[in-house]
Amino acid sequence: MRAMARLEFHAQGRVRLRTLTLIRWIGVVGQAVAILVVHYGLGFHLPLGPCLIVVGASAFINLGVTVFMLDRPPSMRLRQRQAAGFLAYDIVQLALLLYLTGGLQNPFAVLLLAPVTVSATILGVRPTIALCTVSVAAITLLAVWHEPLPWRGGGLDLPLVYVLGIWTALGLGIVFFTMYAFRVAAEARRMSDALTATQLTLSRERQMSALGALAAAAAHELGSPLGTILLASREIAADLPEDSPIRGDVEVLIDEAVRCREILARLAARPEGEAEPFARLPVSAVVELAARPHLRDTIKLRFEFGPIDGAATAAQPTIVRSAEILHGLGNLIQNAVQVARSEVRVETSWSDDEVRVRIRDDGPGFPPGMLERLGEPYVSGRDRADHMGLGIFIAQTLLGRTGGNVSFVNRTDNGGAAAGAEVAVRWNRVILEAAEQSEFS
Q: By residue range, what is the domain housing residue 229?
C-alpha cells in the first residue's frame, strides 16, 4: 500500500509548471506569427484586432505565471486538476481563434488534438476524459457557429457534408490519439516505476551484504580486546578468596564476556561477512545461498545438481556470488515456496557451454493467460492487496543483467493433469564464469 501511495504521489505531480508555460509561449508565438503572415503576407483579411486580443490574453496570463514562478523552485510541479485547468484554457483559447477564422474549415483546427494528447501523456484518466469532452464540445460548436473563412474575392462556403467529415475526423482523432498516447505513456510509467523498484531492491541487497561484511569486521576487531578482558577477569577470579564480596560480580563479568564472544563468533560466521575468500563459489552453492532465506518447515526444499545429460565430464562452474544472482534466484524460489503444496525442487545443472537452474513446484501452476505476460511489471495471479506483481519482473531484470534467460512453463503429469509450474534460468557458461562483480554493478 505504501508503494501504491508513492506511485499515486508521483502521478499527481508528474508535470512541471515551467514545462507547460514554455509550451504555451511557443504556442503564443506560433499563433501570432501565423496570423500576421496570413493577414499581411498572403493577403487574407483576418479580423486582426480580435485575433490579437485572444493571443494577447494568453501572453498576458503566461507572463503572470512567469512572474509567479520567479520566487518558486524550477522543479515546481502541478497537481492533476491544476494541469488539467491549464490545458483546458489552451483548448478554449484555440477554439476562440478558430471561431474568428472559419471554424472547422480552417486547416489549423487539427491543433485541437495537441492539448488532449499532452493530457494523455501526463495526467490520469478522469482529467483526460474531461479534456476530451471539452475538445469534442468545441469542435461541435465550431462546426455550427463561426465567422466566415477569409478568402480572396469573398468567403469560402464548404459543403455541409465536408464540414461533417472534418468534425468526424477530428472527433475520432481526439479519441484515438488520446487512447494511444495514454496507453503508451502508462506502459512507460509502469516500466519506469518497476525499474526504479528493481534498482531499490538491488541497492538494499548490496547494503545488507555490506552490513554483514561490516559486522564480520567488527567481530574480528573486537575479538582481541574481549579476549584480553576475559583472560584478566579469570585471573582476578583465581586470586580472589571464596568469601570475597566481589567474587559474584567477577563471575558475572566472565559469563557476559563469554556470551559476547559467542555473539561475535556468530557474526563472523555469517555468509555476508565472507567477503574475499568466498567471492566466487560453485554454482550449486550460490543457488543454495539464494534459497536459504526462504526455507520453510511446511515446504520441503530439495536441491539437485550435476552435469546435464551427455555432459558427464563437465566440471561444476565457479561463479561470482553477485547480489543480482542471489536476489533474482531468491525471488523465483520464494514465489515457488509460497504457492507450493508440499515440495519445491531446485535443479542445478551444467555442461561445457551452458549453466541451467530449474525451479519446480507442486502448486497449481501459473493462471491461464498469464504465461505470455510473465515478466511484465505489475502482473500477478494473486488476490492479495499488498502483492504488486513485481517479484518476477525484478528477478528477470536482475538475472538478465548477468546474461541469464528466464522462461516459464506449466508442467503436467502423464495423465495431462496440472503438476505445478517450472521456471528455468539459462546462462552461457563462458560468459557467466568470466564475469566479475563489477560487471553486474
A: 210-273
For 128-170, give the DSSP string.
HHHHHHHHHHHHHHHHHS-PPBP-TTS-B---HHHHHHHHHHH
**What cell was used for 246?**
566481589
CB atoms within 10 A of CB 184: 12
What are the φ and ψ backbone dihedral angles of 319, each rounded to 5 degrees?
Answer: -130, 165
d(CA 238, CA 12): 72
Looking at the structure, tell me whether residues 292 and 433 fall in a common domain.
Answer: yes
| Residue 6 to residue 232: CA distance in whole angstroms | 56
Cβ neighbours of residue 410 under 8 Å, at least 6 residues apart? 365, 366, 371, 418, 420, 421, 422
DSSP alpha helices (H): ranges in 240-343? 247-269, 283-291, 323-339
- 348 versus 322: the higher-pLDDT residue is 348
- Rg (alpha carbons) of the chain, rounded to whole number: 34
Mean of pLDDT values over 167-181: 89
Express each pLDDT in 252-291 by its tens digit: 888 888 888 777 666 655 544 444 445 788 898 999 988 8
| Contact yes or no for 329/356 (Cβ under 8 A) | no
Domain-terminating residue out of 132, 158, 184 = 158
Residue 173 lies in a domain: no
pLDDT, tens digit, for every residue of 62-80? 898 888 877 777 667 788 8
Element (H, E) at 81: helix 80-100
Q: Which run of H or of E encompasses 208?
A: helix 160-239
pTM of the model: 0.52
Asked if residue 301 is part of any domain, the answer here is yes
List residues bridging with 354 in a β-sheet.
428
Whole-number Å distance between alpha carbons of 124 and 182: 8
Q: Are residues 304 and 414 in the same domain?
A: yes
